Amino acid sequence: MADEAVERRGSQRIVTNLVGRSRFWLSWYGGRVLLEDLSIEGFSMAISTPPASERPFEFLIEREDTIGGVSGQAQIVNFAQGVKGGLAGCRFIDLSEDAHRQLADWLAGHVFDVAAVRVSADDAEEIVLGPSIV
Fold first, then answer.
1. What confidence category does residue 9 fall into, taking pLDDT thresholds of 50, 70 and 90?
2. I want to staple 108 with a disulfide (CB 3.0 to 4.6 A). Which of 85, 95, 96, 125 is the partner?
3. Which residues contact 73 (CB under 8 A, 6 or more apart)?
């Protein structure tokens, strides 16, 4: 695991924790945390200490006001320590086609809802499925 944060995603990261309110949560190892950002390739989460392992782990991502979730396996690929704690970047290593589709739909809906400028549903989907623009 790299000591410094390195951009590894080819797709756009979507900020999910806005003004302390998140629409997406991650359940893993018996705990539940807010996601900081999410893409169709992975996610990041705030954790206080560096993870003890780079081994794959099972997860469940849930979205506010929905029933069910998206599950699969992910792996922590980096950890960055900051003044307010740490941020672990994770990539999906096992995500079914149905889960991928559900995640893309959730993210497009989130982009459509929170975009600072007006975007269409098609624009939101292109942002989610397209390359990283940051």
1. low
2. 125
3. 56, 57, 58, 59, 92, 93, 94, 95
